[in-house]
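Sample intake sheet
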Amino acid sequence: MTASVTIDRLAWRDGGFTSGTRCIPEEMPVAFSYNRLSHAVMMATPDDLEDFARGFSLNERIVQHAGEIEEIERVDLPDGIGIEMRMWIAPGRMAGLETRRRRIAGPTGCGLCGIESLQEAIAVPGDPVPAGRAVGAADIMAAMAAMRPAQLLNRDTRAVHAAGFFRPGEGLLALREDVGRHNALDKLAGSMSLAGHDASDGILVMSSRVSVELVQKAQRMGATILAAVSAPTALAIRTARAAGLTLIAVGREDGFELCTHPHRVLGAAQP
């Protein structure tokens, strides 16, 4: 199963039609199961799915560290109807998941669906983020600039999001893409957990706007700086402020905007 496909299309420009082709991203159901118990179905790009399964499990607090996932198996279902990512976790973690499932009122999906209360949806997940490292404005600009040429699937399709990890002095160490911005960040989390990257030692970069669930996932990853090309929501700012996370928005070629905890950016004035 490929991450993109090429289709025939007609384009209307300058008053007339022309035929041609376009590369578009693939999207399909990806089911997560734990110890053969179905848990969630996500609409995702069928690429880097082991990273996705691992990162989703970490960010949704199903496991505490990647080593608690004993095995991951990918099963491509007949007739291309979807993919199942089968995971096996320790009995203790499975017992906790089953208890949690009994409290779920609806299906999981985007990271906020199926939770047991509205309060949990806006909660700051756990302790505030660690102190992390200070970075310069030039590091932030370099991180944002490094993301675009690394978005190979988006270069072909112009239709997917990306999440990356940039470490000053070393550059962009990992990047994952998906039609869903939450999925891209989960894939990145899975990749970083295998590589042993400390999220507090660099900058998470996103090609999307920043919503509250992205801030929550970044905090669970241990990140201290999250930078994105678009603006955040008001709730995302409040959550980042409470979590101690430095949130950077509207990261473009001409600069960026600091929304919370500017002390991690060298030379920024403390409001």
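Comment: The longest helix spans residues 181-195. The helical segments are 49-59, 91-103, 118-121, 137-150, 152-157, 181-195, 212-220, 234-243.
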